[in-house]
Specification:
With 246 residues, the protein is an alpha/beta fold. It contains nine helices and seven strands, in the order E-H-E-E-H-E-H-H-E-H-E-H-E-H-H-H. It has a seven-stranded parallel sheet with strand order 3-2-4-1-5-6-7, with helices on both faces. Helix 6 links the parallel strand 6 and strand 7. InterPro entries: P-loop_NTPase.
């Protein structure tokens, strides 16, 4: 994987954008090390909840791209684009719910996706669809993102809010909503809802401490079984990411 730019975009808050960013960043970083690539660069544009930037091991740069009036600050956003373009390597950009609409509008207005592609970057948008009560809103976010750009999409199915199915029992990926946009999807990653008392608690402990998998391995704050369960979760997620048609 070389010169890829990954935008994590979904208009609904609290749906797992930062979780996806941290998982994706750790997977890409592992590839970069194995392949001798330039170090991964990570950015957090969330104006209010810059959680991604608190993962010290990932050296995330916080770039608040919005003004107090909730519009995109051209100078800050241009600086972000220039920073991405100035050197080769892979990039992950985490975007908050509050920046979704203005940021998407600015990216489209300035034809930024094409600029990145013309510079030799492969661009991907990672969009999250959640289950349960979040399904409708996040599915509409998936549709609006798919219709707004021609950028390849990676669909993350977050089961932590419930299964991704309608009241009739039809799975989201069986719906007409998904079928109408499925040609744009180059891969799917399922965030499975595992046992909340074991796997769930361990992942929460890891995320609360803002640690990476490698840091957990070396930490004396996690016992052997906690480390094992976290290893199982990330092995599954990394295997799914390996199957995406990058």
């Amino acid at each position: 994987m070389q010169n890829t730019v990954h935008f994590i975009l979904q208009g609904k808050g609290g749906i797992g954008k930062t979780l996806v960013s941290t998982i994706l960043a750790q997977w890409i970083a592992s590839k970069d090390v194995a392949e001798g690539q330039q170090p991964l660069r990570c950015y957090d544009t969330d104006q209010e909840n810059a959680t991604f930037s608190r993962y010290k091991a990932m050296d995330v740069k916080h770039v608040p791209v919005m003004t107090d009036s909730r519009t995109i600050d051209p100078k800050r956003f241009d600086a972000l684009m220039i920073d991405i373009l100035e050197q080769d390597g892979n990039c992950v950009i985490d975007n908050g719910a509050n920046t979704f609409s203005p940021l998407m509008g600015y990216l489209i207005e300035n034809d930024c996706f094409a600029l990145l592609q013309e510079s030799g970057r492969k661009v991907y948008i990672h969009t999250i669809v959640g289950g349960g009560d979040t399904l409708h809103d996040t599915a509409m976010g998936f549709v609006s993102t798919a219709k707004a750009t021609n950028v390849p999409l990676v669909l993350w199915e977050n089961e932590h809010f419930g299964l991704l199915q309608s009241v009739s029992g039809k799975q989201f990926i069986e719906s007409q909503t998904y079928a109408d946009n499925s040609a744009r999807v180059v891969g799917r990653v399922v965030l499975s809802a595992r046992n909340a008392d074991t796997f769930g608690a361990d992942i929460k402990k890891m995320n609360t401490a803002r640690l990476t998998v490698n840091e957990v391995k070396e930490s004396d704050k996690f016992n052997v079984m906690e480390k094992q369960r976290i290893k199982v979760v990330f092995r599954d997620l990394f295997e799914q990411l390996d199957k995406v048609q990058w």
